[in-house]
Amino acid sequence: MLMLISPQQWLAYDQWFNFQLPAICLILGGLFLFVGLIPLLYARNKVTWSIFYSLLGLCIVTGIFCGIKSSGTQVKQYFAQTQYITPQTRTYSMQLFFKKENDPYEIAQYRYVTDINNVSHLTNIYQKKAVKQRVEFLGRDDYYIYVKLDKMVMKFSTVDCEKISGNQAYFSGYRFIMRNKDFEKIGFLKLPYNMRDKILVPKDQWNKKVPPYYTENYAHPGLVANWIPDSSK
Q1: Measured CA distances, 175 to 43, 62, 118, 119, 126 (Å)
Q2: N or C: which end of the chain has fewer CB within 10 A?
Q3: 65 with 129, same domain?
Q4: Confidence tier at 118 by pLDDT (50, 70, 90)
């Protein structure tokens, strides 16, 4: 069973692994090196040995604490998913001692990108729901198929298609629903549009030729009827 990470816990992991844990390592490392080890190398006496062993013990205890705090199933999930965060799903990215804000223009560009793979890996943030939409199949040429939805014509590579039984064409894809609205408070973005995966074309209509009108007057749409079609230009 998937143990979901709450927005508060996700933020705590952001802080711990990008700010707090590195700071602890730097401070303890500096103390051990400059206060414990180097003085001992220059003057080996009761005082330097005492300071050295005290700092060594502190490092060991702190290391055990940090190791326990940095382990567990949810930590593994956090690291497994953070690599799939893009400007489409979060307004900033976490880096060592730094929170990098994504460019608003880049975020706007990602708004019309179908990135099912990356978003599908963010299982703690979004619930993946299969969706389907009827479209009008206009025909195809050697490389592309053409469909119409909400009076907008789109074209797609034939590799994006799947032949099906019946006489109706469809978009098949996914909707990603934010599991907890509090994720918005830590920079994650709602994904209000359906992402197109495949175009399902009736196999009996597959060889239908598209009228020249559609190929000669084609305009590449960005968003159609709540769908990100990611159609060919």
Answers
A1: 67, 44, 13, 10, 9
A2: N
A3: no
A4: very high
Parent domain of 144: 125-228
Distance CA 87, CA 98 (A): 16
Question: How confident is the model over 41-76, as pLDDT tens digits?
Answer: 888 888 888 888 899 999 999 999 999 999 989 999
Token code pair at residue 15: 């802080």
What's the mean per-residue pLDDT of the chain?
Answer: 91
For residue 2, the model assigns a pLDDT of 63
Domain endpoint, select from 35, 58, 75: 75
Residue 184 has what DSSP assignment? G
Report yes or no: 33 and 206 within 8 Å, Cβ to Cβ: no
String of DSSP letters for 190-207: ---SEEEEEEEEEGGGTT
The answer to whether residues 52 and 147 belong to one domain is no
Number of domains in the chain: 2
**DSSP state, 28?**
H
The beta-strand segments (E) located in the chain are: 92-95, 98-101, 126-140, 144-149, 152-157, 161-164, 169-178, 194-202, 227-228
Per-residue b or e along 127-160, where b marks 16 or more CB atoms closer than 10 Å to that residue's CB = eeeebebebebbbbeeebbbbebeebbbbbeeeb
pTM for the whole structure: 0.86
Domain assignment of residue 22, yes or no:
yes
Do 135 and 171 touch, CB atoms closer than 8 A? yes
